[in-house]
Amino acid sequence: MKNIILKNINYLYLFSTLVILILYFFPGDVVSYFLHGNFDTGHDFTQNPIAHTVYFLINTGGYSINHILTFSYITAGGLLTYFKKKNLYMGLYFFILLSVILELIHLITPNRAFELNDVLANMMGVACVFFVFKLKKKFTS
Fold this sequence. Notes:
With 141 residues, the protein is mainly alpha-helical. The protein has helices at residues 2-25, 30-36, 49-58, 65-81, 88-104, 116-140. It has one domain.
């Protein structure tokens, strides 16, 4: 029974990561599409102030919260499922490399752009989860 649950958790993680990657490579701004109905990022605040506020909260201060949360989820799920029995540092290197490669692919994706702030936010998400796992490992051993 435990193996079936773990296998389903692995499949759920893989499926959710696939959905995240599809959205990550989507040629346009998905948040703008749901808030404004189009993929443009340059919207007038007076047209829809609530949507503009939501968009600003998701992308605050140049460091995209959505990137931090996304890479925290991808890293935590990966460390819990696939890097559980392997070296924790191997998982750290893998997810840092993944965060850089995924952002570099934005250079060739239409309507997307490489942003250093996004790379830093991706790495911040990976680092936060890594430090939580290191603290857990330190206090449980």
